[in-house]
Amino acid sequence: xxxxxxxxxxxxxLSFKAWFVCGLALASFAAGSVITARLMQLNQVRAxxxxxxxxNVYHTVPGKVPALEERFRDxxxxxxxxxxxxxxYWVPNGDPAWANTFIYIVAASSREEAKTNWxxxxxxxxxxxxxxxxxxxxxxxxxxxxxxRPTDFSALR
Length: 157
Hints:
Helices cover 54% and strands 20% of the residues. The chain is an alpha+beta fold and 157 residues long. Strands 2-3-1-4 form a four-stranded antiparallel sheet. The model has no long low-confidence stretch (mean pLDDT 84).
């Protein structure tokens, strides 16, 4: 009888050791995964550290946002042709203080790339039709433009 009792204790002891080893292996794997993921994220942030976003806020002549929106609908094809990576175009919705505003954001891998792309865009003879259109039918009062860098905790980098 004592022998049977000792063998059950041995199985329990073996099970405890097996579970302990498995648990230790699992915890080590999880810790390694977390550390690796964090290091990968740091490398990703460094890789994108030169990326910039250009915020363009067009203040229109009162009531001219729809006409400017239509102009950009057409000009967006020319922007794409010159690698101007437009993230999106927006018009305010419901705030009277922003009623005459048109906004868009362009992403570039660096300020240098952005300058090159804009220079090529402005040098394109097709761009001149937009310049002539603006002289003929003034839609834009002024433009505020600024380059922005993403923060290290930004979802969009």
